[in-house]
Amino acid sequence: MLNRQGRPTDVGEPVEAIPETFTGNRALIIEEPLIFESGRPEVTGVDLPEAPKVAHRLGGLVRSGPIGLPGLSEPEAMRHYVRLSQKNFGIDSGMFPLGSCTMKHNPRLGEKMARLAGFADIHPLQPLSTVPGALDLMERLAQALIELTGMAAVTLTPKAGAHGELCGMMAIKAALQARGEGHRTVVLVPNSAHGTNPATAALLGFQVSPLAARDDGTVDPADVLDQLTPDVAAIMLTNPNTCGLFERDVVRIAELIHQAGGLVYADGANFNAIVGKVRPGDLGVDAMHINLHKTFSTPHGGGGPGAGPVVLSEALAPFAPVPFLRREGGRLILVEHDFGEGVSPFGRMAAFHGQMGMFVRALAYILSHGADGLRQASEDAVLSANYIKASLADVMSLPFPDRPAMHEVLFDDSWLEDTGVTTLDVAKVLIDEGFHPMTVYFPLVVHGAMLIEPTESESKASLDLFIATMRDIAMSVRRGDIARFAGAPHFAPRRRLDETRAARTPVLRWTKPVAE
Amino acid sequence: MPNTHYTKEHEWVRLEGDTALVGITDYAQTQLGDVVYVELPAIGTTLDKGEEAAVVESVKAASEVYAPVAGEVVAVNDRLVEAPGIVNEDSEGRGWFLKLKLNDPAALESLMTAEQYKLYIETIS
Amino acid sequence: MRYLPLTPEDRALMLARAGLGGVDDLFADVPAGKLLGDLPNLPPSKSEIEVERLMGRLAAKNVAAGAVPFFCGAGAYRHHVPASVDHLIQRSEFLTSYTPYQPEIAQGTLHYLFEFQTQVALITGMEVANASMYDGATAAAEAVLMAHRITRRKKAVLAGNLHPHYRDTIATLSRMAGDELVVAPPAPCGAERLAALIDDETSCVVVQTPDVFGHLHDLHTIAAAAHANGVLVVAVVTEAVSLGLVAPPGAMGADIVVAEGQSLGNGLNFGGPYVGLFATRQKFVRQMPGRLAGETVDADGRRGFVLTLSAREQHIRREKATSNICTNSGLCALAFTIHLTLLGETGLRRLAELNHAGAVELAERLAALPGVAVLNKTFFNEFTVKLPKPADAVVEALAARGVLGGVPFSRLDPGHPELADLLIVAVTETATAEDRGAFVAALTDVLAGGEGA
């Protein structure tokens, strides 16, 4: 049995330069055209019968001329989207320590449950008598959110975090108006807040009054007091804040605001650090949104859909928007219009009843974890961030070294000063090393911010590899060995993209090339 | 340039007769990075000192340009709309934003001179 | 706990490395007395099988649309979604990725968003579209705010036949933002005189086609009247499949087109998550809310895509942003674009024809029933019938007979008792001839005073 086919058995000599390929493809990374380049209008991947001939009832409003839509057969479509997916980094690809975004494992049980026909295939306007299980599920989620936050009520309808902020601030505005205090037009917003906070306040006609942090990165009650004019409607406080610190004076701040007749909005983006450990309702909060896609790990989906239920204090509960659930004689009903006694909803946030698909996933997450698992998840998230902090403190720079980190740890770029390496370079080198970069240049309150949120989903081995990689990067910087930073990433499907060109001459859609 | 004055918000203003050109400083364009868009006011707009006159956007930042002194907009640099990169290339020359007819040319004296502005940016950077 | 990889030994080692004595040290900044000891009202962790049993029981209490003859619409439509769509959107790299802020490792998302934007522009007949919004109603509210920014006016006029949830969503935001609103009354027979409501303080007029009763509208007349006054036309479409057959708003003078995209690729899901479509003219692009993917090149000159024009957005402009929106409806947009790619031009047209033919057939049969009148001269796949009885009672009686027979207008807007006998009926390709027959038979029985009627 000799090798008579001439098949080589050695691996060959090492090569200096990697050759170009004819196709531009690189093995598993395959270049993919736009569907407008590969598809054909006459091709379809869906077999449909010819429609029976009827007398149209379109009143002459028939579309004329071709739409210009390409079609792909099913095998072509599968390849197109699978190849595109291979150019994306997800949580399932590797560690994704994107601070403030909470990229933790997405349990697939939620996907399975959300696809049960009894949840996925029910219409929002079919008779309520045919959807008691859906209402029951919504009530169970609502009860769990109330239990975990210690608040009086919850409105489930907002469709994302920023939409929840809008809802909470509308409730505050409605409550102030009901009190005859519409003159309160100022909202205090710390400089470290997410951009959505000032944008939301401004959208509702509030005047944003920025609040600087003290040296340790948290808000000083004395500074709040200084800005506490009779015009103050509310404070929007993120806790833990975006520097990854618990606002240790939150109770005092809330007292000051309440004494002055204002209300406290809490941005719940970082609620995942304290679930099962601290209840916002015990801290003096009047309204807080909960990003179900962060804290309760419904998938981020490449940028949505999210869900942003808002928990409300006794003071704000009557103003919650429609629809809401109510028990009447043991029966659960969905109140869509008929307000009844004692409530005055400020209006409606969106069509229908909220992100039911996300409610199912979030409840599956909560039930799976249970009280013990939720507490453990928060503790592990915070422990992991502190482990990273302690393991990198000697080679990177911490703007706020003295307070314990919560679920995320913030570094600045003073360790890169005069090295020619920037925060962006570090992020791009991490891509080459197989990690998703941390959040960079946010929060705005420190220079060259690097915000690292490991979440509870990483094993110790995974954390250790990340730490070792960051230390190696730091050593390269110290040695002045910075070749790895120039032009990184080198191994991603694309190298750095020209964002200036994209913005100066925006090309936002495909157009048919003009024939030469 | 001797007849150019500067603001703490990094605008420059240069007197030419009873009108003045307004733009953003070289320091400002460096801080912003590649300018990708400039929004200019309508001709005929009257501006108070400190009022928002224009907006300049880079890829990762956006900034308002304020009127350094009060006046009426008599011309704008339309070329910036098509070619915002001029702001990066020549911010204190071809990259001017707008021309103001001044209510009170003497108001310029309250602004910084080139030397004072140079010292000012040393203190903030 | 199956989702938590750290072991007790790992935790002890990590605490030691962090120089902490115990878990409570991690929460040292929590004010005294505010750290919880326990969560007494939440049960302990459950295995997959336990959670499946519990949730399966809840799901089983609901009547799934696919189990019965089904004719509900009014802004959410049951269409057949190809099996490959759901498979593809569950690819980990799509499902578990984030907003594509690091474009070198997010070309998959950015590439499909660029295709999505192009498809949306094509079907709406507009020049540009964004990377999607939360849903159709919030997209409509954002369109009104955008029109206010462009025109520097603060008064919107809403057609009476705009979906009441859309109307209420816009009205809530307008009231809270201190803007003005003029709302026309519902016109179940379809004819509205909106031009009379426009003046030189109006920023936009919001018109839906097909409207909530199913009527189609030629927008040319209202567009001419609006544009003569410097007023923008915002067109709303709640059934995206209609755009395969009906003249698109962009061809009739609309300045902004918003739509609910749920019909393609996305299930009913009891109302969400859905996907808002948002399209406009090139000249308004910098006033657009939401995310935008744009084409560019990388350092090697290869084509690639990035999020662009982001200086309009909240994370940069903060209180001066065009909108407070921080996300889109990415995965629903992916489902939409995959479904539309599979359909292609041929499939979308055929799907739209099938919907229309089914609706025409059912409308004719219902119109023949004694006491029943179809109010529509024109419609796509949804029309309104006037019943001799209150529609909510009829719908309950139909449900008791195993038919989900449409949406009473009073469910959407109980503020018009004179319209309580109107039933909105939608017919898609999922309703078979047999289903339509069952509906006609059940309605006949209910109206004849059968049991439970």
UniProtKB/TrEMBL annotation, chain A:
Xref: Pfam families: Aminotran_5, GcvP2_C
Residue span(s) of domain Aminotransferase class V: 180-301
Chain's role: The glycine cleavage system catalyzes the degradation of glycine. The P protein binds the alpha-amino group of glycine through its pyridoxal phosphate cofactor; CO(2) is released and the remaining methylamine moiety is then transferred to the lipoamide cofactor of the H protein.
InterPro entries per record: Aminotrans_V_dom (IPR000192), GDC-P_C (IPR049316), GDC_P (IPR020581), PyrdxlP-dep_Trfase (IPR015424), PyrdxlP-dep_Trfase_major (IPR015421), PyrdxlP-dep_Trfase_small (IPR015422)
Keywords: Oxidoreductase, Pyridoxal phosphate
GO terms for MF: glycine binding; glycine dehydrogenase (decarboxylating) activity; pyridoxal phosphate binding
Record-given protein name: glycine dehydrogenase (aminomethyl-transferring)
Lineage: Bacteria, Pseudomonadati, Pseudomonadota, Alphaproteobacteria, Hyphomicrobiales
From TrEMBL, chain B:
GO cellular component: cytosol; glycine cleavage complex
Cofactor: (R)-lipoate
A GO BP annotation: glycine decarboxylation via glycine cleavage system
CC cofactor note: Binds 1 lipoyl cofactor covalently.
Span of domain Lipoyl-binding: 19-101
UniProt-listed Gene3D superfamilies: 2.40.50.100
Record PTM N6-lipoyllysine, positions in chain: 60
CDD domains listed in its UniProt record: GCS_H (cd06848)
Domain of life: Bacteria
The entry's keywords: Lipoyl
Function summary: The glycine cleavage system catalyzes the degradation of glycine. The H protein shuttles the methylamine group of glycine from the P protein to the T protein.
Similarity comment: Belongs to the GcvH family.
NCBIfam families xref list: gcvH, PRK01202.1
Subunit-level organization: The glycine cleavage system is composed of four proteins: P, T, L and H.
Protein name: Glycine cleavage system H protein
Source organism of this protein record: Blastochloris sulfoviridis
Lineage: Bacteria, Pseudomonadati, Pseudomonadota, Alphaproteobacteria, Hyphomicrobiales
UniProtKB/TrEMBL annotation, chain C:
Assembly and binders: The glycine cleavage system is composed of four proteins: P, T, L and H. In this organism, the P 'protein' is a heterodimer of two subunits.
GO BP: glycine decarboxylation via glycine cleavage system; nucleoside metabolic process
GO function terms (MF aspect): glycine dehydrogenase (decarboxylating) activity
SUPFAM superfamilies, alphabetized: PLP-dependent transferases
UniProt protein name: Probable glycine dehydrogenase (decarboxylating) subunit 1
PANTHER family: GLYCINE CLEAVAGE SYSTEM P-PROTEIN (PTHR42806), GLYCINE DEHYDROGENASE (DECARBOXYLATING) (PTHR42806:SF1)
Swiss-Prot/TrEMBL keywords: Oxidoreductase
CDD domains: GDC-P
Family (UniProt): Belongs to the GcvP family. N-terminal subunit subfamily.
Entry EC no(s): 1.4.4.2
InterPro entries documented for this protein: GcvPA, GDC-P_N, GDC_P, PyrdxlP-dep_Trfase, PyrdxlP-dep_Trfase_major, PyrdxlP-dep_Trfase_small
Species of origin: Blastochloris sulfoviridis
Domain Glycine cleavage system P-protein N-terminal span(s) in chain numbering: 1-435
